[in-house]
Amino acid sequence: MPGLSLGLSLRARRRGGIAGPVAAAAISAIEADGWSARWATGTPPTFAPDAAPQTIAVARMGFDAEARPTVHAATRLFTRRRRLPWPDQTSDTPAVVALDDYVYATDTIAGVANLSTETSPRPVAAWAMPHRRVVGDTIPLEVVAFHRDARGGRMVAAVRFLASDGATVVSQVVAATTLSTRPGDRQPLPVFACALDVSTLAQGLVTVHAEVYPWIGDAAAVLRSAELAAPREFSARYFLRHPALHAAPPLAYVAAAGNDASGTISTVPATASAAPFATVKGAIDALQAALSATTGLDGAIVRIGAGTFPLASAAAARTQRVAALTIERDPAVPRASAIVTWGAAGFAPRLSTGFTGPVATGCLRFRDLTVRRTGAAFLSGDGAARLELQWEDVAFDNNGVSGNWLTRSDNYFFGVAFTGLAGTTLAAGANGEQRIMRGVAADLADAMYENWVTLACTLTRPGTGAIRDATKGAIAFQNRFLNPNPAGSPLAISASGAGDTVTGFWAVQNLIELTRTGAGPMVRISSDAPAFGNTDHCGLGRNTITGQGSAGRYNVFYDNDTGGVRRTHRRMWHQGDVGVQLNVKGDVDIGEAAALGHLAYQHGVGCRGNLTQFRVATATAHVELQAWPGVRSLIGTSTTARREPGFVDYRGVTAAGAGAGGGDYRLQPGAAARGLVDVAVLSHDLAGAPRTPDGPDSAGAYV
């Protein structure tokens, strides 16, 4: 059965969800791949999933909003017969049908043998807040999380936050996402958030963990931060519970008229500001002398007055036990007037002794001031002790210096506005990582950036989003990528070698406004050779991308390597995107019968409610395109004439040439992308407008 072999779909006629289950006896077994079913007798009918859906009931192990085990009732949709490999791709298997999504080994279908070997993957999650802070009786915590079995207006069923002093554990379960109240975000950020009550914990180190519960899956599908160790991963976060220190931190002021010999440290702002230090180094040295035997530099604050103050390295190691040392502006002066600089010489603060295990890295926080880079020298950790650099609500003048500044150190950005970026300043480096970019506003001047955890940013002229360790995946959520480099791909990931597997790359609710001509793909997931790499549990959803024809397209889930190197793509999820053109390649494209690693995605498994504005360059069945695009999907029918999603004001690239930019990509009433998806998975759109938690939802980044 050729079926919908060109990947074209009529507008869904049913708005109330899927109906009309067939009898369980219609199929005899779920195949081992989890997305194919064996028809019981005879030849399967010609399915019309959008017009006349046929489904089967499935009981699915999972979790509820209280993180308790439960069983969810669901349905799987029969989409079309599974096609044969090249060179017989125009014919279908006699009795094997494709499903709209996976059946897991933990699922049950009455009267059907479930031979699936697929299981629910663990969610993909990241901490979204700073850590290494002094706290009192509460700890503010935020997590973003994603999973392919999303529903009910959120990606996962619940997140349990836990904190321990080594003897006592306190916890709180959070089910709903809310918009973060943290300042500095360029777009509102939906998060799982709580203010965890730690008043019953002892004073000292507090270790924070989280458990993320998917809607579907068994205990093995729960993501637990306690099972991960690398700081880049969703691992433990550390705080110092010390109510007195939290209420009254030690202060050292720095001013142009200060004196390092007579500066005063005090917990009283008026006392400390009356006797400032002349240099940042002088202030930190004095804090070290006064506090090394007690709290160390934990929670201490250096306040910068009006003027420009260079950062200078320490001669000896300084004591830090858990919490960050903060350098911030004097509240009495504007941010633009309080300036610290480095670059002509390197800066090593040497926060490297006295740690409370398992804390083993220094932590320096720059907050609410101006930072100016004056040269290519590094910010450095100390020997075996790496340095965490936390930049929070900072005006950062990179001053046109190329290359990053990391050696034995790693960056964490929260609400940073960059100017003067040049070269690969924010790219992946051999000696340090960009571990999170949240609320960053920057003109990247067409250069690469490290997209490990990129949240609520506005990046102008971004190049390719590269990842230092691609096998561990990445998250891009709630960002605007404006006027990207036509030769780059802001959302891109590929493993570096044959046999590597990219696990957990998720790009959700981003806007890519392509305005320049001559562009290639804006989204690449394991695409053209020789970029090898399998993928597992990678997701795309609620993204809006502008472009024209093939400019701005997707190149995703390819299996087109030569020389016998095959790729496999499993447990993918692609729902509710408004894209440009969708390309997937494998056996038919290259003429190799074994190149079937793309076949699940090519049959629309895990796909739902996507709209593409243009069709692929060829109309030949199964060349570059899906055999079926997913229920309620609308695929472009022309390489030149746009299928209109219904934007309020399109200002991207067109057939006539470059676009002006600054478009409004919300959806007009009656827009084709409105109500296109029958499963709501997010609480808010890119602008912070509420999405409907139940029933149809709009495709794209905006409602």
Automatic annotation (TrEMBL):
Highest taxon in the source lineage: Bacteria
Gene3D superfamilies reported for this sequence: Single-stranded right-handed beta-helix, Pectin lyase-like
Name of this chain's protein: Pectate lyase superfamily protein domain-containing protein
